[in-house]
Queue: 4 jobs
Job 1
Amino acid sequence: MNDDKIIELYWKRNSEAIVQSNKKYGGYCFKIAKNILSNNQDSEECVNDTWLQAWNIIPPNKPSELKMFFAKLIRRISFNRFKFIGAKKRGGGQIEAVLDELSECVSDNTKDVEDEIITKELGECIRVFVRDLPAREGDIFARRYFFTESIEQIAKRYSITTNNTMVILSRTRQKLKLHLIKEGYLYE
């Protein structure tokens, strides 16, 4: 079933929307959750929570790209679950590594409304930066820092060495840092 028909089912409040969403995107969402949580049961629960949130969000929203809509939902839900269960106990996940790698460029400081607004603007600034990267570099960056894929998975996908992947990510983080300094989000 195509995405427009699935969205139409959500708008009609037809529970078949969830069945079709799971059929088409269940594996995709599970993989994203598993990359974040490293636990099958928690990942399955997050996938189910994704369908519930989609049910509550569509309508009034009408996603332009259903796959990315679900990716954002599952990612947010999985990160919240990760925080809730205390990820250090789980081990084996990519989150600690991803957050550590990005810590030199971005800090998580959302203590009040002003900080939340700055954080949203920062997010948009990073999205623009990634969109302007060459395709492969942008995809590698997104796979690591949005989809939390391991360096080994990325290297295998592009038939490059893990060292080459780490160099690409390091150079891209450095470019991001310079971009954020230029935009006034970081200071040297």
Job 2
Amino acid sequence: MLKTILAISGKPGLFKLVSQGKNMLIVEALATGKRTPAYAHDKVISLGDIAIYTVEEDVPLGNVLEAIKAKTGGQPVDIKAFEDDAAMRAYFKEVLPDFDEERVYTNDIKKVLSWYNLLIAAGITDFAEKEEEEDAPKAEEAE
């Protein structure tokens, strides 16, 4: 699901991929439902391609969003309730205990939490990739 959700540099919010045209994508804002083009020169990245640095290895964003959902019970995170950066980092440490504190900035944490809130508000609550695709080749090998 996160593969079709896009972040576009310079544009606030998240966008859902609707269609592809020549040298552009047609995207729909999750918050407003307004459709706009995203051109080849725009920096567009799929949320499915983003990972968070940890001490061991990078953790896909979908897994981090699932951990936030488990911690909040599927409710939005009140970002304004954090008194300072240290409080926000402490909260994120509860969600992802081994995140790399030197390479993950407070702005990155704030962006992940705001993306989580936008996705929840849009009714998107399934963040982890399905493992069914991985099971299909195993069935063929058994034959």
Job 3
Amino acid sequence: MSTEKDNEQLVEAFVKAADAAFRSLKETFKEHFYYYVFVFDEGLHPYISAWSYEALEKSIVEQQITDEEKSWWKWDCSDSPYVVYGYDKFFCEVSDLLDKRASILSSDELYEIEWDTRVNLLEEAMKRLDESGLFGTGEERKNVIINVEEAPPNGSEYDRALRLNPPSALLSEYLETCERTEMD
């Protein structure tokens, strides 16, 4: 099993990779981003996704998204044109660390204990990125949503969003599209 030191090393790698990817995204596209997430799926290697208002409007037209679909499309990380942005460039260290961790685990351990550990470490990484001011500060920060989303969604995104974001109208809008666990 992973030690506290191993976990901290992985959080630091997540922070470094995501910081570089999100900064590159903002500098390259010069758009108004409102949504930044880590996505974690059965591949067990997280990647980023993001949406800007400019990309959203373009996507709605190109994909012929109906008015009824717009509210969830705005938050659909897998349909963003920026999904997996910068993975090959910025996530090499992360990939190596995750492969090393996986090599000593059984399949059951990997998809049960390690899955939850990785999601928790990703949340910690997003929290640190937020504390660094990457997503804005003060009133500006209320115009941005950050999260760690699992694919397929399992309802945990709702609670994570509450922990990672300040109260705002945008957060309320986002939460409307999140699945919730049965306990909520």
Job 4
Amino acid sequence: MALATDKTAVITENLTDAGLDKKAIAECLKMLDEHEFSALQKFLSDYRKKLLDSVHEYNDRIDCLDYFTYTLKKSLEVK
């Protein structure tokens, strides 16, 4: 765990926990160092959207499995 006094380490740990790879983290740190806050905000927003799209994709798959097991169960009850 990073020390709270080491801001770079705290940011790096947070971005790692969020799933960013080392290259993306370096890019974020560079944007921070260069005060490119708008670019950083867009980068993080785009990454968040990508994660959320992934969640939706997996949710759709779960829904399909739920529907399949429901119909399977119903068809076995009829026989």
